TrEMBL record:
<feature type="region of interest" description="Disordered">
    <location>
        <begin position="138"/>
        <end position="162"/>
    </location>
</feature>
<keyword id="KW-0723">Serine/threonine-protein kinase</keyword>
<dbReference type="InterPro" id="IPR036890">
    <property type="entry name" value="HATPase_C_sf"/>
</dbReference>
<keyword id="KW-0808">Transferase</keyword>
<dbReference type="InterPro" id="IPR003594">
    <property type="entry name" value="HATPase_dom"/>
</dbReference>
<keyword id="KW-0418">Kinase</keyword>
<dbReference type="Pfam" id="PF13581">
    <property type="entry name" value="HATPase_c_2"/>
</dbReference>
<protein>
    <submittedName>
        <fullName>ATPase</fullName>
    </submittedName>
</protein>
<feature type="domain" description="Histidine kinase/HSP90-like ATPase">
    <location>
        <begin position="5"/>
        <end position="116"/>
    </location>
</feature>
<dbReference type="InterPro" id="IPR050267">
    <property type="entry name" value="Anti-sigma-factor_SerPK"/>
</dbReference>
Length: 162
């Protein structure tokens, strides 16, 4: 899905992503994926220049969901430690905490930031395990994984949402 990352569009994108996950029978992933997409779009809105134009892509392959956001700004984001008093600066730490892996790469004059989650269609007990993992995320963002620790799988392509 191509869009301009402005606050007024983020709710609409969340609804589209939720509907696609339901279509794929991945209901248990709706909360962490929509939170991750919200954080990545907020980063595009806050930091990408000159354009806020971006593309959101979901791909399911071999039991893994990959969510990626591509924008036209070539500057790669940095993880930083936000102080307890700061109201922003935790987005990538949150992505690292909620995902199985994540990373970023330069691509086509811009960049792609992505994260993955296990995407096996689950039996009821397994759905509870995924939700339990989601519910136990640390509020402070927890330990962050570096892009080197979470290298993307090359050559993975999937369906565009939208």
């Amino acid at each position: 899905m191509e869009l301009h990352a402005v606050p007024a569009r983020i709710g609409h994108v969340r609804r589209i992503v939720s509907a696609q996950l339901r279509r794929w029978h991945l209901d248990a992933l709706i909360e962490p994926v929509t939170l991750g997409v919200t954080e990545l779009l907020a980063n595009v809105h806050r930091h990408a220049s000159p354009s806020k134009r971006c593309t959101v892509e979901l791909c399911v392959l071999l039991g893994q969901l990959t969510v990626s956001v591509h924008d036209d700004d070539p500057r790669l984001p940095r993880i930083r430690t936000a102080g307890n008093w700061e109201t922003c600066g935790r987005g990538l730490a949150l992505i690292a905490a909620l995902s199985e892996s994540w990373g970023m790469r330069a691509e086509g004059g811009g960049k792609v930031v992505w994260f993955t989650l296990p995407a096996l269609t689950a039996a009821p007990g397994e759905v509870r395990a995924v939700r339990s993992r989601w519910d136990s995320l640390p509020l402070d963002g927890g330990p962050a994984r570096t892009p080197a620790e979470a290298a993307p799988r090359s050559g993975v392509r999937g369906a565009r949402v939208g």
